[in-house]
Specification:
3-stranded antiparallel β-sheet
């Protein structure tokens, strides 16, 4: 989480108009979900990976580490699609006999699992492009421009702030417990984690109350008014986005 946020601020596409990055991500994602073409999904994965690694200059090691998390979930997810239980062994590419039943993989199941995997992977790369190149404050700014209800954007702002406050607090408590040998055994570890979570819950309520008091003292009336950064729309980027989406659509329709 912290790593993603850091790279969102220091990447080479940081100063690109947020709406341009958002448009590229959302339109590509919609195309991916609308068509079941593995070639389209492969093109999206390749394009987004190139933009992340060479456009935004995100380190390869960081990108691979981030992709491993959804990759593991997707692998376990598609196994449930690919596996089939049947009493007809001849339809199986590979199976294990358990009494009268056969558990294995069919050609149809493998193709369906592959299609789901490619679509999911393409969608993940789209979202990673947005999160690795666009800070959360810019994403909230985009939502405001799209006339999303203020209550949603305000909650997102506050929750986003609280994530880092609680992470810092949890880290401080954990270091304090570790210095007191709180994790030297399994029994002590469970005891320390219980105290950490309890203290974190109490602290979160205290910080929330302090935040509400601070906002009320500053005349908060349901909307956080902050200065907005001005961005320049790039005709070059708009042409690139248009060409890219037309290319993706062409691949999806023709192949």
């Amino acid at each position: 989480m912290i790593s993603i946020d850091q790279y969102a601020y220091i990447n080479k596409l940081r100063n690109t108009h947020p709406m341009e990055k958002f448009a590229l991500t959302m339109v590509t994602l919609i195309i991916c979900l609308s068509f079941n073409s593995w070639l389209l999904h492969l093109c999206v994965i390749t394009s987004m990976t190139i933009l992340i690694l060479y456009g935004a200059k995100i380190p390869v090691s960081v990108y691979i580490r981030l992709m491993l998390i959804p990759f593991i979930f997707m692998i376990f997810g598609i196994l449930g699609v690919a596996l089939r239980v049947d009493n007809e062994a001849f339809i199986m590419l590979y199976g294990i006999n358990i009494g009268e039943w056969v558990i294995g993989f069919t050609m149809e199941g493998v193709f369906q699992a592959f299609a789901i995997f490619m679509r999911s992977y393409a969608g993940v790369t789209c979202l990673y492009f947005l999160t690795l190149t666009t800070p959360m404050v810019d994403i909230i700014w985009i939502l405001k421009k799209l006339k999303i209800p203020a209550i949603i954007t305000e909650l997102m702002t506050i929750v986003y702030r609280f994530i880092f406050v609680l992470l810092e607090t949890a880290s401080t408590i954990y270091i304090s417990q570790e210095c007191r040998l709180g994790y030297t055994s399994i029994k002590k570890s469970y005891y320390s984690i219980g105290h950490l979570l309890t203290n974190l819950l109490i602290i979160s309520f205290v910080r929330a109350r302090e935040l509400f008091i601070a906002l009320s003292a500053r005349g908060y009336k349901g909307e956080l008014v902050v200065l907005e950064e001005k961005y320049k729309v790039s005709k070059k980027n708009i042409l690139f986005i248009s060409f890219t989406e037309i290319l993706f659509l062409s691949v999806a329709v023709l192949f």
